[in-house]
Amino acid sequence: MSEKACTRKADKVLWIGLAAGVSFWFIDSVVDFIFFDDETISSEVFSPGPEEVWLRLVILSLFIAFGVYARAAVSKEAALREAEEHARAATEAAMEKVRASYDFLQSVIDGVAEPMMVVGMDYSVSMMNKAARMLSPHPDVWQGVTGVTPMCFDIYPGGCSACSNRRGHPCPLDLVHETEATVSVEKEYKGADGQARHMEILASPLFGPDGGVAAVVECFRDVTDRKLVEEMQNAHERHLDHIAHHDVLTGLPNRALFNSRFAEGVLRARMDGHKSAVLLLDLDRFKEVNDTMGHSAGDKLLQAVSGRVAGCLRESDCAARLGGDEFTVLMPVISHQDDAAMLAQRIVEALAAPFNIEGRNCSITTSIGVAIYPDDGADIHTLLKRADKALYRAKELGRNNFQLYSLDDVVSDGGTGSVSACAGA
Fold first, then answer.
1. Which of the residues 120, 149, 279, 339 has an alpha carbon 20 to 30 A from that of 201?
2. CATH superfamily ID and name for 246-404
3. CA atoms of 146 and 135, how far apart (whole Å)
4. What is the mean pLDDT of residues 103-126?
5. Are 402 and 394 in contact (CB under 8 A)?
6. What are phi and psi for residue 188, nearest 5 degrees?
C-alpha cells in the first residue's frame, strides 16, 4: 500500500469518528422526540441541562479521540510498511549489485587461461574459474552445478582428505597460514582427461579485517612441458656425463673416473689405516682375435671380458678399461696383499674359460700385475707404473698368471696355464 493510500485511509477513519460523535448527539435528540412528550423534548433538546451537555461533549470527544488515534495508528502502520518496502528494495538492489559484481568477477577469472581458485581456511572453495573446474576429474563438483560447496581436496585430483594429512603432499593453504606469505609448490595431477600433468601452484594470502589470513588464492600453472624438457636435459646431461666417464664399448669406468675413484678410495684407506690395491690386466694375444675373427668379434670379446671381470669384484671394488685390451681394477680397502692376490687369481681363472663369440668358441687369457698402496706408491701414476712392471713380469713367466710388484724384484707365486688361440665352433 502506498503512502497516499494509507493517508486517505487514516483520514476516512478520522472523519468516521467525527461523524459518529455528531450523529450520537442528534440520535439522542431524535430518541427523546419519539419516546417523550413535546415538553420534555423542548426542554432537553433545546435547553439541555449541564449534565446532559457534558455527557454529550465527553462522548463526542471520545469519538474524536478514537478517530485521531485510529488515524495515527494507520499512519504509523503505513510508515512501517513504507520503511520495510524501502529496506527490502535497498536489500534487493544491494544483492543485485553483489550478484552483478560476483558474476563480473567470475567472468573475469573465467577468462584467465590458467586455473585459479579461492580457498577458505576450512579448505572450502568459494570461487574457482573454468580452467580450474576442467582441471578436476569431477568438473560437476562445484556449487554452481551441484549446489554443494566443495572442499579443495575434493577438487584436487586424487584428493580425499586435507593434503596436509598425506606425507610428501605439501598443502599450499597450510604453508601460507604458517608463513603469511606467498608460497610455491609443485604437484602431479590427473585431469578430467585422465592425463597426468605437473602443476606449479602459486598460493597467496587474503587477509581479513583482523589482519589474519582469511583465505588463500591459488593459481595453477601447467609445467608439464617444462618438466619434460628438464627431464630430457637431465637425461642428456647424465648421458654425456656417462660418456665422459665411461668406456663407450664396455660401459666400464674410463681412466678419468678410475682416477677419481682411486683418490676417494685412497683417502678413505688413509683415514682408516687400510691398504689399497691396483690390478693392471692385459689380454694375452688379443691381436690374434682381431686378425682371425675381425674387429667386431674383438669388440664383443672385450665386452664379454669386462662382464666376467666385473663379476669377480666386491661391491666396493671398481673395474675400468684404460684402452685397447688393457683393464685395471681398484680395491679401495684390503687387509693384506693376499686379498689382492686372491682377486687376481679369480680373474685369471674366470677369463680362462672359453667365450662364445658370434657362434664360435674363443679362448683368451690374461696377465695381471698388482701394486699395493701405500707400500708400492702413494699416487695412481706410480702405482700403475709399478703394476705395469709386475704385469710384464707375468708375461715373461708365460702369461695367464698374476704377479705382485716387489721392490727386490722377487717373483711372487702366481697362477700359470697354457695359452690357446681362437678355435672354430
1. 149
2. Reverse transcriptase/Diguanylate cyclase domain (3.30.70.270)
3. 17
4. 82
5. yes
6. -110, 130
DSSP type of residue 149 = P
**Residue positions annotated with a catalytic role:** 325
Q: Are strands 365-373 and 402-404 parallel, antiparallel or unpaired?
A: parallel
SS3 annotation, the chain: CCHHHHHHHHHHHHHHHHHHHHHHHHHHHHHHHHHCCHHHHHHHHHCCCHHHHHHHHHHHHHHHHHHHHHHHHHHHHHHHHHHHHHHHHHHHHHHHHHHHHHHHHHHHHHCCCCCEEEEECCCEEEEECHHHHHHCCCCCCCHHHHCCCCEHHHHCCCCCCCHHHCCCCCCHHHHHHHHCCCEEEEEEEECCCCCEEEEEEEEEEEECCCCCEEEEEEEEEECHHHHHHHHHHHHHHHHHHHHHHECCCCCCECHHHHHHHHHHHHHHHHHHCCEEEEEEEEEECHHHHHHHHCHHHHHHHHHHHHHHHHHCCCCCCEEEEEECCEEEEEEEEECCHHHHHHHHHHHHHHHHCCEEECCEEECCEEEEEEEEECCCCCCHHHHHHHHHHHHHHHHHCCCCCEEECCCCCCCCCCCCCCCCCCCCC
Q: Which amino acid is at 189?
A: Y
pLDDT over threshold 50, residue 127 = yes
Q: Which helix (H) or strand (E) holds 368?
A: strand 365-373
The pLDDT of 321-325, averaged and rounded, is: 93
A 10 A CB-CB count for 26 gives 10
The angle, 0 to 180 degrees and rounded to 10, between the axes of the packed helices 295-311 and 286-293 is 140
Mean local confidence (pLDDT), 141-146:
52
The three cell numbers of residue 371 are 701394486
151-184 confidence digits (pLDDT tens): 777 665 554 444 655 555 678 888 888 888 999 8
* Domain residue ranges in the chain: 3-105, 116-223, 246-404
Amino acid, single-letter form, for residue 209: P
Exposure string over 356-392, b if 16+ CB within 10 A, otherwise e: ebeeeebbbbbbbbbbbbebbbeebeebbebbbbbbe
- Give the CATH superfamily of 116-223: PAS domain (3.30.450.20)
Angle, CA 374 vertex, CA 394 and CA 385 arms, to 5°:
40
